[in-house]
Amino acid sequence: MSRVLVVEDEQHLAEGLRFNLEAEGYQVQLVETGEAALEKLTAEAPAFDVVILDVMLPGIDGFGVVSQMRESGQFVPTLILTARGYPDDVLRGFAAGADDYLTKPFDLSILIARIRGLLRRREWLRAASAVPTGEPAEPNGSKDVFTFGEKSVHFDRLELHVRDQVFPLTLMEANVLRYLIEHEGQRVSRKAMLAKVWGLHEDTDTRAIDNFIVRLRRYIEDDPTRPRHLLTVRGVGYRFVASPAG
Amino acid sequence: MVVAGRRRSIAFFIALGIGLISVVVLLYIGWVLLRWHTGILLFLGSLLFLTIIVGVVLNTTFLVREIRRNEQHDAFINAVTHELKTPVASIRLYLETLQTRPVDDIKRREFYRTMVEDSDRLLSTIEQILRTGRIGSSSRRKLHLVPISLSSVIEECLERTRALHRLPQEAIEYRPGPEVTIMGDPDEVRAAVANLIDNAVKYSGSAVKVLVETEAVDDKFVSLRVRDQGPGIPKMELKQIFKRFYRVPGPLATRVKGTGLGLYIVRSVAKRHGGRAWAESEGPGQGSTFILQLPIVKLTK
Questions:
Q1: What CATH architecture is B83-136?
Q2: Average pLDDT over residues A70-79
Q3: Mean pLDDT of all residues in chain A?
Protein backbone atom coordinates (compact mmCIF):
# COMPACT_ATOMS: atom_id res chain seq x y z
CA MET A 1 0.00 0.00 0.00
CA SER A 2 1.42 3.37 -0.98
CA ARG A 3 2.01 5.83 1.84
CA VAL A 4 1.18 9.50 1.34
CA LEU A 5 2.26 12.34 3.62
CA VAL A 6 -0.05 15.36 3.45
CA VAL A 7 1.45 18.62 4.78
CA GLU A 8 -1.46 21.04 5.07
CA ASP A 9 -2.40 23.43 7.88
CA GLU A 10 -5.94 24.10 6.66
CA GLN A 11 -7.88 21.46 8.54
CA HIS A 12 -10.82 21.25 6.18
CA LEU A 13 -8.64 20.68 3.14
CA ALA A 14 -6.44 18.21 4.99
CA GLU A 15 -9.43 16.12 6.11
CA GLY A 16 -10.95 16.22 2.63
CA LEU A 17 -7.68 15.06 1.12
CA ARG A 18 -7.35 12.29 3.67
CA PHE A 19 -10.84 11.00 2.91
CA ASN A 20 -10.22 10.91 -0.81
CA LEU A 21 -6.74 9.42 -0.70
CA GLU A 22 -7.88 6.71 1.67
CA ALA A 23 -10.76 5.98 -0.67
CA GLU A 24 -8.10 5.55 -3.38
CA GLY A 25 -6.43 2.94 -1.22
CA TYR A 26 -3.49 4.94 0.05
CA GLN A 27 -2.28 5.09 3.61
CA VAL A 28 -2.40 8.76 4.66
CA GLN A 29 -0.53 10.74 7.32
CA LEU A 30 -1.46 14.37 8.05
CA VAL A 31 0.88 16.99 9.50
CA GLU A 32 0.32 20.72 9.89
CA THR A 33 3.83 22.15 9.79
CA GLY A 34 6.95 21.88 7.69
CA GLU A 35 9.02 20.99 10.74
CA ALA A 36 6.73 18.09 11.58
CA ALA A 37 6.88 16.93 7.96
CA LEU A 38 10.68 16.83 7.93
CA GLU A 39 10.68 14.97 11.20
CA LYS A 40 8.17 12.41 9.93
CA LEU A 41 10.13 11.93 6.71
CA THR A 42 13.38 11.15 8.48
CA ALA A 43 12.00 9.20 11.41
CA GLU A 44 9.24 7.11 9.96
CA ALA A 45 9.64 3.69 8.40
CA PRO A 46 8.53 2.40 5.97
CA ALA A 47 9.29 5.49 3.95
CA PHE A 48 6.59 7.61 2.30
CA ASP A 49 5.95 7.18 -1.40
CA VAL A 50 4.54 10.63 -2.12
CA VAL A 51 4.44 13.98 -0.28
CA ILE A 52 1.68 16.53 -0.87
CA LEU A 53 2.95 19.87 0.33
CA ASP A 54 1.23 23.21 0.99
CA VAL A 55 3.35 26.37 0.70
CA MET A 56 1.90 28.82 3.22
CA LEU A 57 2.66 26.92 6.39
CA PRO A 58 3.42 28.19 9.87
CA GLY A 59 7.18 28.08 10.44
CA ILE A 60 9.23 27.11 7.41
CA ASP A 61 7.21 27.25 4.22
CA GLY A 62 6.71 24.54 1.61
CA PHE A 63 9.57 25.72 -0.60
CA GLY A 64 11.89 25.50 2.40
CA VAL A 65 10.62 22.04 3.27
CA VAL A 66 11.22 20.57 -0.18
CA SER A 67 14.68 22.10 -0.55
CA GLN A 68 15.68 20.81 2.90
CA MET A 69 14.38 17.38 1.93
CA ARG A 70 16.49 17.35 -1.20
CA GLU A 71 19.56 18.63 0.62
CA SER A 72 19.34 15.84 3.16
CA GLY A 73 19.01 13.21 0.42
CA GLN A 74 15.25 12.69 0.69
CA PHE A 75 14.06 12.13 -2.84
CA VAL A 76 10.44 11.24 -2.17
CA PRO A 77 8.29 12.44 -5.08
CA THR A 78 6.76 15.73 -3.90
CA LEU A 79 3.74 17.58 -5.23
CA ILE A 80 3.27 21.18 -4.17
CA LEU A 81 -0.39 22.06 -3.69
CA THR A 82 -0.90 25.77 -3.10
CA ALA A 83 -3.10 28.79 -3.71
CA ARG A 84 -0.12 30.64 -5.17
CA GLY A 85 -0.15 30.24 -8.91
CA TYR A 86 2.00 33.04 -10.31
CA PRO A 87 4.70 31.80 -12.69
CA ASP A 88 7.33 33.00 -10.21
CA ASP A 89 5.86 30.81 -7.50
CA VAL A 90 5.66 27.76 -9.75
CA LEU A 91 9.26 28.22 -10.89
CA ARG A 92 10.36 28.65 -7.30
CA GLY A 93 8.65 25.39 -6.41
CA PHE A 94 10.41 23.43 -9.10
CA ALA A 95 13.72 25.13 -8.37
CA ALA A 96 13.39 24.07 -4.74
CA GLY A 97 13.12 20.47 -5.89
CA ALA A 98 9.41 19.73 -6.27
CA ASP A 99 8.35 17.13 -8.82
CA ASP A 100 4.92 18.56 -9.52
CA TYR A 101 2.92 21.71 -8.83
CA LEU A 102 -0.84 22.13 -8.63
CA THR A 103 -2.75 25.27 -7.68
CA LYS A 104 -5.80 25.52 -5.44
CA PRO A 105 -8.64 25.27 -6.15
CA PHE A 106 -7.87 22.02 -7.92
CA ASP A 107 -9.79 19.30 -9.70
CA LEU A 108 -9.91 16.19 -7.52
CA SER A 109 -9.48 13.76 -10.40
CA ILE A 110 -6.46 15.68 -11.68
CA LEU A 111 -4.83 15.66 -8.26
CA ILE A 112 -5.31 11.92 -8.03
CA ALA A 113 -4.02 11.38 -11.57
CA ARG A 114 -0.89 13.36 -10.72
CA ILE A 115 -0.31 11.38 -7.55
CA ARG A 116 -0.65 8.19 -9.58
CA GLY A 117 1.86 9.57 -12.05
CA LEU A 118 4.39 10.23 -9.30
CA LEU A 119 3.86 6.76 -7.86
CA ARG A 120 4.21 5.16 -11.26
CA ARG A 121 7.53 6.91 -11.84
CA ARG A 122 8.72 5.70 -8.47
CA GLU A 123 7.74 2.15 -9.34
CA TRP A 124 9.69 2.31 -12.58
CA LEU A 125 12.76 3.57 -10.81
CA ARG A 126 12.43 0.81 -8.26
CA ALA A 127 12.04 -1.84 -10.94
CA ALA A 128 15.05 -0.45 -12.73
CA SER A 129 17.28 -0.41 -9.68
CA ALA A 130 16.21 -3.92 -8.74
CA VAL A 131 17.59 -4.74 -12.20
CA PRO A 132 16.69 -7.08 -15.00
CA THR A 133 15.02 -10.36 -14.54
CA GLY A 134 16.74 -13.47 -15.77
CA GLU A 135 20.26 -14.35 -14.71
CA PRO A 136 21.56 -12.92 -11.46
CA ALA A 137 23.34 -9.68 -12.12
CA GLU A 138 26.78 -10.32 -10.75
CA PRO A 139 29.15 -10.86 -13.62
CA ASN A 140 32.29 -10.64 -11.54
CA GLY A 141 31.93 -11.99 -8.04
CA SER A 142 30.08 -10.48 -5.14
CA LYS A 143 31.75 -7.09 -5.41
CA ASP A 144 29.62 -6.35 -8.44
CA VAL A 145 32.48 -5.19 -10.64
CA PHE A 146 32.83 -5.98 -14.32
CA THR A 147 36.22 -5.60 -15.91
CA PHE A 148 36.96 -5.43 -19.61
CA GLY A 149 40.25 -4.34 -21.11
CA GLU A 150 41.61 -1.49 -19.02
CA LYS A 151 38.10 -0.53 -17.94
CA SER A 152 35.97 -1.63 -15.05
CA VAL A 153 32.40 -0.86 -14.06
CA HIS A 154 31.72 -0.68 -10.31
CA PHE A 155 27.99 -1.17 -10.15
CA ASP A 156 27.86 -0.90 -6.37
CA ARG A 157 29.51 2.54 -6.40
CA LEU A 158 28.06 3.70 -9.72
CA GLU A 159 31.52 4.36 -11.10
CA LEU A 160 33.32 3.64 -14.32
CA HIS A 161 37.10 3.30 -14.09
CA VAL A 162 39.04 3.84 -17.29
CA ARG A 163 42.74 3.39 -16.62
CA ASP A 164 43.29 5.90 -13.77
CA GLN A 165 40.23 7.98 -14.61
CA VAL A 166 36.95 7.64 -12.71
CA PHE A 167 33.58 8.61 -14.24
CA PRO A 168 30.48 8.73 -12.07
CA LEU A 169 27.48 6.97 -13.59
CA THR A 170 23.83 7.73 -13.03
CA LEU A 171 21.65 4.89 -11.88
CA MET A 172 20.03 4.58 -15.28
CA GLU A 173 23.34 4.65 -17.12
CA ALA A 174 24.60 1.86 -14.88
CA ASN A 175 21.43 -0.13 -15.47
CA VAL A 176 21.67 0.23 -19.23
CA LEU A 177 25.29 -0.80 -19.11
CA ARG A 178 24.56 -3.75 -16.86
CA TYR A 179 21.85 -5.00 -19.17
CA LEU A 180 24.16 -4.79 -22.17
CA ILE A 181 26.98 -6.53 -20.32
CA GLU A 182 24.69 -9.36 -19.25
CA HIS A 183 23.91 -9.95 -22.89
CA GLU A 184 27.51 -9.68 -23.97
CA GLY A 185 27.99 -10.49 -27.63
CA GLN A 186 24.24 -10.68 -28.29
CA ARG A 187 22.07 -8.24 -30.14
CA VAL A 188 19.81 -6.30 -27.82
CA SER A 189 16.80 -4.49 -29.22
CA ARG A 190 15.79 -1.03 -28.06
CA LYS A 191 12.33 -2.35 -27.21
CA ALA A 192 13.78 -5.05 -24.99
CA MET A 193 15.95 -2.50 -23.21
CA LEU A 194 12.96 -0.26 -22.61
CA ALA A 195 11.00 -3.17 -21.21
CA LYS A 196 13.75 -4.62 -19.02
CA VAL A 197 15.61 -1.52 -17.86
CA TRP A 198 12.83 1.04 -17.72
CA GLY A 199 9.96 -1.33 -17.14
CA LEU A 200 8.04 0.28 -19.99
CA HIS A 201 5.77 -1.81 -22.14
CA GLU A 202 3.86 0.80 -24.04
CA ASP A 203 4.86 2.08 -27.42
CA THR A 204 7.29 4.61 -26.14
CA ASP A 205 9.76 6.63 -28.11
CA THR A 206 12.97 4.63 -28.09
CA ARG A 207 15.29 7.49 -28.90
CA ALA A 208 15.96 8.13 -25.22
CA ILE A 209 18.08 4.97 -25.28
CA ASP A 210 20.26 6.34 -28.05
CA ASN A 211 21.11 9.28 -25.82
CA PHE A 212 22.22 6.92 -23.09
CA ILE A 213 24.40 5.03 -25.53
CA VAL A 214 25.99 8.24 -26.79
CA ARG A 215 26.87 9.17 -23.23
CA LEU A 216 28.19 5.74 -22.35
CA ARG A 217 30.35 5.66 -25.47
CA ARG A 218 31.93 8.90 -24.38
CA TYR A 219 33.15 7.13 -21.24
CA ILE A 220 33.99 3.71 -22.59
CA GLU A 221 35.26 4.24 -26.08
CA ASP A 222 38.65 5.62 -26.85
CA ASP A 223 37.13 7.12 -29.98
CA PRO A 224 33.37 7.56 -29.48
CA THR A 225 32.82 8.10 -33.21
CA ARG A 226 34.26 4.66 -33.94
CA PRO A 227 32.92 2.45 -31.12
CA ARG A 228 34.54 -0.89 -30.46
CA HIS A 229 32.68 -2.02 -27.35
CA LEU A 230 29.19 -0.54 -27.79
CA LEU A 231 28.26 -1.43 -31.32
CA THR A 232 25.17 -0.35 -33.18
CA VAL A 233 23.17 -3.13 -34.79
CA ARG A 234 21.40 -1.32 -37.53
CA GLY A 235 17.62 -1.49 -37.39
CA VAL A 236 17.64 -3.48 -34.14
CA GLY A 237 19.58 -1.97 -31.31
CA TYR A 238 22.99 -2.51 -29.78
CA ARG A 239 25.55 -5.12 -28.96
CA PHE A 240 28.19 -5.05 -26.26
CA VAL A 241 31.57 -6.59 -26.93
CA ALA A 242 33.93 -6.93 -23.96
CA SER A 243 37.13 -7.76 -25.81
CA PRO A 244 37.00 -6.73 -29.44
CA ALA A 245 39.33 -8.55 -31.74
CA GLY A 246 42.21 -6.52 -33.07
CA MET B 1 -7.21 53.44 -3.28
CA VAL B 2 -3.68 52.11 -3.39
CA VAL B 3 -3.26 53.24 -6.96
CA ALA B 4 -4.32 56.76 -6.00
CA GLY B 5 -1.71 56.75 -3.21
CA ARG B 6 0.98 55.66 -5.65
CA ARG B 7 0.04 58.32 -8.18
CA ARG B 8 0.29 60.93 -5.49
CA SER B 9 3.76 59.80 -4.52
CA ILE B 10 4.89 59.68 -8.13
CA ALA B 11 3.64 63.25 -8.59
CA PHE B 12 5.47 64.21 -5.44
CA PHE B 13 8.75 62.77 -6.68
CA ILE B 14 8.45 64.53 -10.01
CA ALA B 15 7.77 67.82 -8.25
CA LEU B 16 10.71 67.24 -5.94
CA GLY B 17 12.99 66.48 -8.88
CA ILE B 18 11.95 69.65 -10.71
CA GLY B 19 12.44 71.60 -7.50
CA LEU B 20 15.95 70.26 -7.02
CA ILE B 21 16.93 71.02 -10.61
CA SER B 22 15.67 74.59 -10.36
CA VAL B 23 17.61 75.04 -7.15
CA VAL B 24 20.78 73.95 -8.91
CA VAL B 25 20.09 76.29 -11.85
CA LEU B 26 19.39 79.12 -9.44
CA LEU B 27 22.60 78.39 -7.63
CA TYR B 28 24.53 78.57 -10.88
CA ILE B 29 22.94 81.82 -12.05
CA GLY B 30 23.41 83.26 -8.62
CA TRP B 31 27.06 82.36 -8.78
CA VAL B 32 27.49 84.17 -12.13
CA LEU B 33 25.51 87.25 -11.15
CA LEU B 34 26.74 87.67 -7.67
CA ARG B 35 30.34 86.63 -8.07
CA TRP B 36 31.57 89.91 -6.80
CA HIS B 37 29.32 90.01 -3.76
CA THR B 38 31.13 87.29 -1.90
CA GLY B 39 29.19 87.77 1.30
CA ILE B 40 25.77 87.46 -0.27
CA LEU B 41 27.01 84.57 -2.35
CA LEU B 42 28.23 82.72 0.67
CA PHE B 43 24.93 83.19 2.46
CA LEU B 44 22.81 82.24 -0.52
CA GLY B 45 25.09 79.35 -1.34
CA SER B 46 24.87 77.80 2.09
CA LEU B 47 21.11 78.33 2.14
CA LEU B 48 20.60 76.56 -1.18
CA PHE B 49 23.06 73.85 -0.26
CA LEU B 50 21.05 73.16 2.87
CA THR B 51 17.88 73.05 0.80
CA ILE B 52 19.41 70.43 -1.46
CA ILE B 53 20.46 68.30 1.48
CA VAL B 54 17.00 68.49 3.00
CA GLY B 55 15.57 67.59 -0.38
CA VAL B 56 17.75 64.52 -0.72
CA VAL B 57 16.88 63.37 2.79
CA LEU B 58 13.18 63.82 2.05
CA ASN B 59 13.56 62.00 -1.23
CA THR B 60 15.19 59.00 0.42
CA THR B 61 12.61 58.90 3.19
CA PHE B 62 9.70 58.85 0.78
CA LEU B 63 11.39 56.30 -1.44
CA VAL B 64 11.89 53.95 1.48
CA ARG B 65 8.29 54.47 2.54
CA GLU B 66 7.09 53.70 -0.96
CA ILE B 67 9.13 50.48 -1.12
CA ARG B 68 7.74 49.42 2.22
CA ARG B 69 4.22 50.13 1.04
CA ASN B 70 4.87 47.96 -2.00
CA GLU B 71 6.07 45.13 0.18
CA GLN B 72 2.97 45.36 2.33
CA HIS B 73 0.84 45.43 -0.75
CA ASP B 74 2.47 42.22 -2.01
CA ALA B 75 1.99 40.56 1.34
CA PHE B 76 -1.63 41.65 1.27
CA ILE B 77 -2.17 40.20 -2.20
CA ASN B 78 -0.64 36.91 -1.06
CA ALA B 79 -2.79 36.83 2.06
CA VAL B 80 -5.98 37.67 0.18
CA THR B 81 -5.18 35.10 -2.51
CA HIS B 82 -4.81 32.52 0.20
CA GLU B 83 -7.90 33.61 2.11
CA LEU B 84 -10.07 33.58 -1.00
CA LYS B 85 -8.77 30.46 -2.68
CA THR B 86 -8.46 28.14 0.30
CA PRO B 87 -12.19 28.01 1.18
CA VAL B 88 -13.10 27.69 -2.49
CA ALA B 89 -10.63 24.82 -2.86
CA SER B 90 -12.11 23.15 0.19
CA ILE B 91 -15.74 23.53 -0.91
CA ARG B 92 -14.86 22.25 -4.34
CA LEU B 93 -12.99 19.27 -2.94
CA TYR B 94 -15.96 18.26 -0.80
CA LEU B 95 -18.45 18.76 -3.61
CA GLU B 96 -16.40 16.60 -5.94
CA THR B 97 -16.06 14.01 -3.23
CA LEU B 98 -19.82 13.88 -2.76
CA GLN B 99 -20.28 13.75 -6.49
CA THR B 100 -17.87 10.92 -7.21
CA ARG B 101 -17.69 8.71 -4.13
CA PRO B 102 -20.10 6.78 -1.99
CA VAL B 103 -20.28 8.68 1.31
CA ASP B 104 -22.25 7.45 4.31
CA ASP B 105 -24.82 9.66 6.04
CA ILE B 106 -22.70 10.75 9.00
CA LYS B 107 -19.78 11.74 6.79
CA ARG B 108 -22.13 13.44 4.40
CA ARG B 109 -23.54 15.65 7.15
CA GLU B 110 -20.02 16.43 8.34
CA PHE B 111 -19.05 17.45 4.81
CA TYR B 112 -22.07 19.75 4.53
CA ARG B 113 -21.13 21.45 7.79
CA THR B 114 -17.54 21.89 6.61
CA MET B 115 -18.73 23.48 3.39
CA VAL B 116 -21.04 25.89 5.23
CA GLU B 117 -18.14 26.94 7.46
CA ASP B 118 -15.93 27.46 4.43
CA SER B 119 -18.50 29.59 2.67
CA ASP B 120 -18.89 31.68 5.86
CA ARG B 121 -15.16 32.20 5.92
CA LEU B 122 -15.14 33.19 2.28
CA LEU B 123 -17.99 35.60 2.80
CA SER B 124 -16.34 37.26 5.79
CA THR B 125 -13.12 37.79 3.81
CA ILE B 126 -15.09 39.31 0.96
CA GLU B 127 -17.01 41.56 3.33
CA GLN B 128 -13.79 42.63 4.99
CA ILE B 129 -12.29 43.67 1.67
CA LEU B 130 -15.44 45.46 0.51
CA ARG B 131 -15.76 47.25 3.82
CA THR B 132 -12.16 48.45 3.59
CA GLY B 133 -12.95 49.84 0.18
CA ARG B 134 -16.00 51.66 1.52
CA ILE B 135 -14.58 53.22 4.66
CA GLY B 136 -11.03 53.73 3.55
CA SER B 137 -11.52 55.44 0.23
CA SER B 138 -11.84 59.16 -0.22
CA SER B 139 -15.41 58.69 -1.42
CA ARG B 140 -16.89 59.50 1.95
CA ARG B 141 -19.84 57.25 2.24
CA LYS B 142 -22.42 58.77 4.54
CA LEU B 143 -23.00 57.03 7.84
CA HIS B 144 -26.50 55.85 8.59
CA LEU B 145 -26.55 56.99 12.17
CA VAL B 146 -29.13 55.45 14.44
CA PRO B 147 -29.19 54.95 18.20
CA ILE B 148 -27.62 51.60 19.07
CA SER B 149 -27.35 49.72 22.31
CA LEU B 150 -23.67 48.77 22.45
CA SER B 151 -24.22 45.83 24.77
CA SER B 152 -26.66 44.15 22.41
CA VAL B 153 -24.16 44.51 19.56
CA ILE B 154 -21.50 42.94 21.77
CA GLU B 155 -23.80 40.07 22.83
CA GLU B 156 -24.61 39.39 19.21
CA CYS B 157 -20.93 39.31 18.19
CA LEU B 158 -20.05 37.07 21.13
CA GLU B 159 -22.71 34.56 20.14
CA ARG B 160 -21.48 34.52 16.58
CA THR B 161 -17.83 34.09 17.53
CA ARG B 162 -18.61 31.33 20.03
CA ALA B 163 -20.59 29.45 17.40
CA LEU B 164 -17.98 29.96 14.71
CA HIS B 165 -15.05 28.71 16.77
CA ARG B 166 -17.15 26.22 18.76
CA LEU B 167 -16.15 27.75 22.06
CA PRO B 168 -17.70 27.09 25.45
CA GLN B 169 -19.45 29.98 27.21
CA GLU B 170 -16.59 30.52 29.68
CA ALA B 171 -13.90 30.92 27.01
CA ILE B 172 -15.06 34.50 26.48
CA GLU B 173 -16.16 36.32 29.59
CA TYR B 174 -18.32 39.41 29.25
CA ARG B 175 -18.51 42.01 32.00
CA PRO B 176 -20.97 44.67 30.89
CA GLY B 177 -20.63 48.16 32.34
CA PRO B 178 -23.44 50.71 32.46
CA GLU B 179 -26.04 50.39 29.73
CA VAL B 180 -25.28 53.04 27.09
CA THR B 181 -26.67 54.18 23.79
CA ILE B 182 -24.40 55.38 21.03
CA MET B 183 -25.19 56.96 17.70
CA GLY B 184 -23.68 54.85 14.99
CA ASP B 185 -23.97 52.89 11.81
CA PRO B 186 -25.03 49.46 13.08
CA ASP B 187 -23.25 47.58 10.31
CA GLU B 188 -19.93 49.32 10.90
CA VAL B 189 -20.05 49.19 14.69
CA ARG B 190 -20.85 45.50 14.53
CA ALA B 191 -17.95 44.94 12.14
CA ALA B 192 -15.53 46.76 14.46
CA VAL B 193 -16.65 44.88 17.56
CA ALA B 194 -16.66 41.54 15.74
CA ASN B 195 -13.15 42.14 14.43
CA LEU B 196 -11.79 42.82 17.91
CA ILE B 197 -13.40 39.72 19.42
CA ASP B 198 -12.45 37.51 16.48
CA ASN B 199 -8.85 38.70 16.67
CA ALA B 200 -8.65 37.95 20.39
CA VAL B 201 -9.86 34.41 19.76
CA LYS B 202 -7.76 33.85 16.64
CA TYR B 203 -4.49 34.90 18.26
CA SER B 204 -5.17 33.03 21.51
CA GLY B 205 -4.34 29.71 19.90
CA SER B 206 -5.82 26.63 21.51
CA ALA B 207 -6.29 28.04 25.03
CA VAL B 208 -8.87 30.76 24.53
CA LYS B 209 -9.37 33.03 27.52
CA VAL B 210 -10.79 36.37 26.53
CA LEU B 211 -12.28 39.09 28.70
CA VAL B 212 -14.67 41.62 27.16
CA GLU B 213 -15.76 44.57 29.29
CA THR B 214 -17.28 48.00 28.85
CA GLU B 215 -17.01 51.08 31.01
CA ALA B 216 -18.13 54.69 30.77
CA VAL B 217 -15.38 57.33 30.67
CA ASP B 218 -16.45 60.74 32.07
CA ASP B 219 -20.03 60.05 30.91
CA LYS B 220 -18.87 61.13 27.45
CA PHE B 221 -17.32 58.00 26.04
CA VAL B 222 -17.82 54.30 26.38
CA SER B 223 -14.75 52.05 26.25
CA LEU B 224 -14.97 48.51 25.01
CA ARG B 225 -11.92 46.58 26.22
CA VAL B 226 -11.06 43.18 24.76
CA ARG B 227 -8.27 41.44 26.64
CA ASP B 228 -6.64 38.20 25.57
CA GLN B 229 -3.91 35.95 26.99
CA GLY B 230 -2.31 35.54 23.59
CA PRO B 231 1.22 36.16 22.33
CA GLY B 232 1.15 39.89 23.05
CA ILE B 233 2.51 42.70 20.88
CA PRO B 234 5.98 44.29 20.89
CA LYS B 235 5.84 47.96 21.98
CA MET B 236 7.10 49.18 18.62
CA GLU B 237 4.23 47.51 16.79
CA LEU B 238 1.34 48.84 18.89
CA LYS B 239 0.60 51.68 16.50
CA GLN B 240 1.67 49.94 13.29
CA ILE B 241 -0.89 47.16 13.60
CA PHE B 242 -3.75 49.58 12.91
CA LYS B 243 -2.32 50.48 9.53
CA ARG B 244 -3.91 49.04 6.43
CA PHE B 245 -2.38 45.71 5.29
CA TYR B 246 0.06 45.73 8.19
CA ARG B 247 0.79 42.47 9.97
CA VAL B 248 3.47 41.99 12.59
CA PRO B 249 6.29 40.19 10.76
CA GLY B 250 7.28 36.77 12.01
CA PRO B 251 5.97 33.23 12.27
CA LEU B 252 2.74 34.36 13.94
CA ALA B 253 1.57 36.04 10.75
CA THR B 254 1.73 32.71 8.91
CA ARG B 255 0.28 30.67 11.75
CA VAL B 256 -2.72 32.97 12.19
CA LYS B 257 -4.21 33.68 8.80
CA GLY B 258 -5.44 37.16 8.05
CA THR B 259 -5.52 39.94 5.52
CA GLY B 260 -4.16 42.80 7.63
CA LEU B 261 -7.44 44.68 7.27
CA GLY B 262 -9.28 43.95 10.53
CA LEU B 263 -7.70 46.53 12.83
CA TYR B 264 -7.60 49.09 10.05
CA ILE B 265 -11.37 48.72 9.86
CA VAL B 266 -11.68 49.04 13.64
CA ARG B 267 -9.68 52.24 13.70
CA SER B 268 -11.48 53.72 10.69
CA VAL B 269 -14.88 52.96 12.19
CA ALA B 270 -13.83 54.54 15.49
CA LYS B 271 -12.64 57.68 13.73
CA ARG B 272 -15.76 57.98 11.61
CA HIS B 273 -17.84 57.83 14.77
CA GLY B 274 -15.81 60.42 16.61
CA GLY B 275 -14.04 57.91 18.79
CA ARG B 276 -10.68 56.17 18.74
CA ALA B 277 -9.09 52.74 18.97
CA TRP B 278 -5.74 51.64 20.35
CA ALA B 279 -3.88 48.66 21.73
CA GLU B 280 -2.02 48.00 24.95
CA SER B 281 0.39 45.19 25.69
CA GLU B 282 3.10 44.55 28.22
CA GLY B 283 5.09 42.94 25.39
CA PRO B 284 5.54 39.48 23.92
CA GLY B 285 3.95 36.70 25.94
CA GLN B 286 1.94 39.07 28.12
CA GLY B 287 -1.32 39.11 26.18
CA SER B 288 -2.83 42.26 24.78
CA THR B 289 -5.80 44.56 25.24
CA PHE B 290 -7.62 46.36 22.49
CA ILE B 291 -9.75 49.37 23.33
CA LEU B 292 -12.49 50.83 21.19
CA GLN B 293 -13.81 54.15 22.48
CA LEU B 294 -17.02 55.63 21.12
CA PRO B 295 -18.98 58.73 22.19
CA ILE B 296 -22.10 58.17 24.30
CA VAL B 297 -25.39 59.76 23.36
CA LYS B 298 -27.14 59.01 26.60
CA LEU B 299 -26.55 57.00 29.68
CA THR B 300 -29.55 54.80 30.35
CA LYS B 301 -29.61 53.68 33.91
A1: Orthogonal Bundle (1.10)
A2: 90
A3: 84
Q: How far is A60 from chain B (nearest CA, A)?
A: 8
Q: Among B82, B112, B118, B202, pick the best mutation site for testing chain A contact (most A Cβ within 10 A).
A: B82
Give Cβ neighbours of residue B35 (< 8 Å, ≥ 6 apart).
B41
Q: Is the ipTM of this complex over 0.90?
A: no
CB contact under 8 A, B93 and A15: no
Interface test with B, best of A22, A32, A86, A108 (most B CBs within 10 A): A108
* CATH 3.40.190.10 given to domain B146-299: no
The candidate with the shortest Cα–Cα distance to A8, out of A86, A75, A104, is: A104
Residue A241 burial class via C-beta count within 10 angstroms: exposed 0-12, middle 13-18, buried 19 and up:
middle
CA dist B267 and B131 (Å) reads: 13
Query: What residue segments make up the domains of chain B, in order of their start?
Result: 2-72, 83-136, 146-299
**Angstroms from A38 CA to nearest CA on chain B:** 18
Cα gap A84→A56, rounded to integer Å? 9
Contacts of A13 in chain B (CB under 8 A): 86, 89-90, 93
Please determine whether the domains at B83-136 and B146-299 fall in the same fold group of CATH. Answer: no
Residues in chain B within 8 Å Cβ distance of A108: 92-93, 96-97, 100
> What was the pLDDT predicted at A142?
46
User: What's chain A look like in SS3?
Assistant: CCEEEEECCCHHHHHHHHHHHHHCCCEEEEECCHHHHHHHHHHCCCCCCEEEECCCCCCCCHHHHHHHHHHCCCCCCEEEEECCCCHHHHHHHHHHCCCEEEECCCCHHHHHHHHHHHHHHHHHHHHHHHCCCCCCCCCCCCCCEEEECCEEEECCCCEEEECCEEEECCHHHHHHHHHHHHCCCCEEEHHHHHHHHHCCCCCCCCHHHHHHHHHHHHHHCCCCCCCCCEEEECCCEEEECCCCCC
Domains of chain A: 3-130 (3.40.50.2300), 145-240 (1.10.10.10)
Q: Note the pLDDT of residue A244.
A: 79
Q: Could you tell me the pLDDT band of residue A139, with boundaries at 50, 70 and 90?
A: very low
Give B97→chain A minimum CA distance, Å: 7
A–B interface: beta-carbon pairs under 8 A = 67
pLDDT tens for B181-234 read 888 888 889 999 999 999 999 888 888 889 999 998 888 889 999 999 888 888
